[in-house]
Please model this.
Amino acid sequence: MAFVSTGITLLFGTSGFEAEFLDIEPPAFERGYVETSHQGTTGGHTFTPKELIDYGELVANFAFDPATDPPIDGAAETVTITWPDDETWVATMFMTSYKGGGTFEDKAVGSATFKVSGAVAITDASASASASSSGSGTG
Model:
C-alpha cells in the first residue's frame, strides 16, 4: 500500500545529529551470490546466495546550516527511521560523507550518507500495537 512520505523522522542515538530533513533515501538491502556453474553445467549459469546481507547506506538531504557540527568522525551509533505510519527501521550506522552549500537565491541544502553496520531491524507498528494491547489487563 502506498503512503505519502511526509513525516519521516531520523533519530541519532549517540551524536544527537539533527537537521531539517528534506529527503530521506533509506538503505537498499543487497544479497550477493556465488556462481556455481562448471564445465558440466547445461541450460544456463547456476548460482547460490551468499549468507550475509549488505544493508547499504542511508542518504539524507537537509536544509544546510553551516553551524552544524556533523558526526563525520563519530563512532557507529543506533539510528532509528520512523515512517509516517509509525513503523520503524533501526540499525547501527556511521556517517561516511557530509556536504552542504547553496545556490544563488535558493535554499541552502546539504547531504549526508550513513553506512549500515550489521542488520536493519524492521518493526511493524500494527503488529507491536496489537501485541501490547493483548496483555492480561490485570491491575
